[in-house]
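Hi everyone, sorry if this is the wrong subforum. Our group has a chain we'd like a structural model of before ordering constructs, and none of us has done structure prediction before. Sequence below.
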Amino acid sequence: MAQDSRPNFLLIVVDDMGFSDLGAFGSEIETPHLDALALGGVRLTDFHSAPACSPTRAMLLTGTDHHLAGIGAMTETLRPDFEGAPGYEGHLNDRVVTVAELLRDHGYRTLLSGKWHLGDSEQTWPAARGFERSFALLPAAGDHFGRELSNPAFPTPMYAEDDAYVTELPEGFYSSDYFTDRLIGFFDERKPNDQRPFFAYLPFSAPHYPLQAPDAEIAKYRGVYDAGPDVLREQRLARLRELGLVGQDVVAHPVVTKEPGWDELSDEAKALSARTMEVYAAMVDRVDQNVGRVVDHLKRTGQFDNTVIVFLSDNGAEGAIAEAMPILGKFIGDRVRKTCDNSLDNLGRPGSYIWYGPRWAQAATAPSRLVKAFTTQGGIRVPAFIHWPAAQRQGVADVFSTAMDIAPTFLDLAGVEHPAPSYQGREVLPPRGRSFRPWLEGRADAVHPPGTSTGWELFGRRAVRQDEWKAVYLPDAAGVSRWQLYNLANDPGEIDDLAALHPNKLEALLGLWRQYVEETGVIETPLSIFDADPSHWDKVLGLAG
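Answer:
Right subforum, don't worry. Here is the predicted structure as tokens:
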């Protein structure tokens, strides 16, 4: 077989990482391998995800809105009155075709190792959606040391390899290490006469809770966070300004939480809280080490210079206190109390189950407002970069872009046309995203032309943006139950609500919102999805009487 000169693609996704959690984005955490890629490519400061993980993954793999792709709501939070609605199937539906399917059909090896979260059946797991080889964590999260292969909140085994469920994990399993082991193993399976380029998808489940990491990495960060999250937030903001990733005069949105401040905590509570952040940093550190292993392998095999590497987080930092979540919180809290050892000396080790809460999360999302699960910037503006040696663009760029732009970029660079309106005898939707390629090659000033509008919705929380103007709706206890208006060019922290001053601009954006709802099939509700009948979640978990 003749050598195929088309580029390889490596898509690296991390889970719940804040905007400033990499060294190249302002962090004190040691991430030299990711920093080298980011500094050798283009760092994107206006790149957007969905507010939470599976919707972003749907956007990444299909190039279209998650409400069209089948993940209108996360499976774990699907309200009874939403079930059966088009776009709310809880898995990638037949109206979309994945980038893996198209690249496979056009001569690419397609490989996945890591978190899937887009379907748990034989009809919906990675092997059914275009991946030739895959090792997948099927649900939203799992113990990073592999202490569970199933749990009451998930109806099937949690892992799958190709077209079979996995019933045993190896001794010494740690998620980031093992996902990397398997991807490198898939690379090495290539036969000498197989000259196809590859599309490799490496979606880590770290640093999603439970926060867990190897002892050596945790020890590296002992004492680093003893001053608390407010001090860390100011340090991060100063570094962001120094790196040119935010404006010198940027004003950060105030921290939003009912949790007590650092000075109000006892010494014991401070020690526990600081340790959770130490574990979180250790998880990010370990992810970086594993990215380094993949990069080393690509260099040793002569593939690195012809590989387009895209990195992003699937949403903003996770600020929830899991046991206080309206959905699943009681279940998680009871399970932790009954089965886990969350003593200080065991935090982050096997048998612990912890999260770090809203103050540490908002240290990482600053200057943006709020965190994961919100349609404010802290929930959807995420760290991202593209490393492509052939690109003309380098450095830092504030070009607006979204997760929907990745699949069209890969298809464009591979010379593959999207088949919409039909694929293998069924109707499929075209991408809503646009290729980065013209912009990366210096042939365009932006990824999206001026005037482009983009909508977001999840958990009843909404947003719509056109250029620098953004309207946000946060229902009930999450915020003011009316549309708010912000000019992100002047106010990236979404602090000054301009709805009363610019009613015509707000009305224009609401017209674009109504267009977005009509085009994507969003089910609008006046309340947050977190207000669903609690008995529904008892039924989902098999806990109903």
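For your construct planning: Residues 267-300 form the longest helix (34 residues). The chain has 15 helices and 18 strands.
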